[in-house]
Amino acid sequence: MADKLVIVESPAKAHTIGKFLGKDYKIVASVGHVRDLPKSQIGIDIENDFEPKYITIRGKGDVISKLKKEAKSAKKIYLATDPDREGEAISWHLAHLLNIDNSEKCRVTFNEITKNAVKNAIKEPREIDLDLVDAQQARRILDRIVGYKISPILWKKVKKGLSAGRVQSVATRLICDREEEVENFIPEEYWTIDAKLEKKGGKGSFDAKFYGTGGKKVELKNEDDVKKILDNIKDKPFIVQKIKKGEKKKSPAPPFITSTMQQEAARKLGFTTKKTMIVAQQLYEGVEIKGVGAIGLVTYIRTDSTRISAEAQQDALNFIKEKYGQKYVPEEKRVFKNKSASQDAHECIRPSQVTMEPDSIKDSLTKEQYKLYKLIWSRFVSSQMSSAEYDTINTDITVGDYTFRANGQILKFQGFIVLYLEGKDEEGEEGENNVPDLVEGEEVKQKKIDPKQHFTQPPPRYTEASLVKTLEEKGIGRPSTYAPTITTILARGYVVKDAKTLLPTELGKIVNDIMKNYFQDIVDIEFTAQLEKKLDDVEEGFKKWVDVMKGFYPQFAVVLQEAEAQIGNVEVPDEVTDEICEKCGRNMVIKMSRYGKFLACPGFPECRNARPILEETGVNCPKCGGKVYIKKSKKGKKYLGCENNPTCSFMSWDMHSKEMCPQCGNFLLKKFSAKKAHYKCSNETCDFTKVEESKKDEEQE
Questions:
Q1: Is 300 a catalytic residue?
Q2: Which of 13, 64, 72, 12 is nearest to 36 (CA)?
Q3: Among the options 25, 78, 211, 300, which is catalytic?
Q4: Percent of the chain clearing pLDDT 70 (strictly above)
Q5: How many Å apart are CA 120 and CA 147, to the nearest integer?
Q6: Which helix (H) or strand (E) holds 446?
């Protein structure tokens, strides 16, 4: 019998660790939290220093019984939950249930789940960090008080089922405020003049842009401004006036922290923040690799630090030298600066073994695991590589009294770009402009002048990636909260996704207005950021969690009373559609359910007619000729289905394309694998197929 018990949160983590420790150790999983505040009541004694009332979580009875049984026969117990506030709190609750004293050295943590990391951690157990526990407890109690005090007001004044979390309310406000900016935006006209020029003798064409006159930049406001310039430069020579040559270096992006991993996975892989964290957790907890066994492929995934251990950095540099050559190793080791709010409790997110290249273990990973692991691995390795080097040329070209500018850069050494280039939310840098070897005073030939009218654009609406970036920049939430926050505001119906864009719903706008008018502090960005800083101070031992609560609650209680008295009943209007109820003739309205939007008759309860909202494809069913719609399964996965279902059995998980079958005339189905697009006929009796290079990259989902 094993006389040493190790408790972790998840069975996957238990399975991986079990491969590293010998027969003297028994590894079991708590399957997450074992105690929490009750759901049926606020569970906090506000009058008695905010004392929380913890209860065992419903459904955890068998797990807790097993843990107690194993603990009774063990000589030594190790609590090996995740190395963060949440993990520390789980260990604290486990210690309470198993009667382990707070002074007992029972807590072990590791940043990566590898054999050496786990064995070294077991050798150096420590006491449970009560400051970490208090920081988690303060956040939990703060969020509970805000949610359980404001939500009933929203139920009473607006409708049941609403909630007003502390961080989710700020996220909703950001999205609503951005939508208001977009709606109120007034576009302004402006113009540009581009010139296509060529070195005489046809030795290279290049692009130049209108800059101004007399060494000063001139803004082109309207067509009259442009016509005046075009008239003045007509038939005049373009003379190279000034040439400035130089070199530029581009440094790699730092290795991932939680927020940047979520942003880049959204941009490059099309992952939601929730999906990114689920897959990242699998990579951290361990995957069974052929020929190796179970191993955690990446370090801990909830971090706001770009720090790299000296050992991991040296391993990366050795790998780069061997695979790419000495030139790709920087002269000095790279050190990335953390943001001031960073706690630096963990390393960055990196591969636990840099020599385990993504393609070498692809067969052992799911498609999603491979994509995310490759992203993490490439980002980390590239962060330790040499800078990319460019030759640059900046040229002023005069024509009459006006100046055009041609700026070019040529990549002369790839450096880290050989492996990885960071994605952008908006338009990135222009491509290379191959400005030929020019001489000051020479004349270049005008091939084309292209004046263009433009209008200023409103600020872009948030995507999940840009919202996470903003939350991090403003100090709202922490690495563990970004994904749950976005998931919650989508689930509550405050926000919807249109393609990748986050849009506030009418309900979201109403709730946001109530929060802004009556609970200003809760949705105030600076106030929320300061509250997060106070929680960090609790973690560092600079503040007592009870003092944080005492500083927050008295004013909050006053605001609650005023809001209860002043908020009137608010009716959320249903969105009326052109769809007619076939039972009673009324215009149907859009309602929300746990599965998303659906059409319902406004005559409820007299008329109970309801049906799903279907998206037309514009193609006809190959079996019966009826309309084909994009439908959703109960799990939200899209598929094609016939309007005559269930009479007609046509359905496909593959999506339709605009192309028609050259053999039978029915529409083609399409799907993507790697970088190829596969097409097949939707008619089961037709065997037409084709494969071509995909215009979409690996982020196609």
A1: yes
A2: 64
A3: 300
A4: 95
A5: 41
A6: strand 443-455
